[in-house]
Amino acid sequence: MSKKRQFTTFSSLLCSLLIAIAPLIVTTTACILVWGEPECPDVLKVS
Asked: 32: which DSSP letter?
């Protein structure tokens, strides 16, 4: 396998992983920045 193909495969996997966990990261970060704690109020939670 060539180095370019290895890099493409690795970067594709990394991007997919980041896209999968992005909602969790954004929600947690927003709750910490806005409310000062990692647990958001129940009103803001989407069920």
From this structure: H
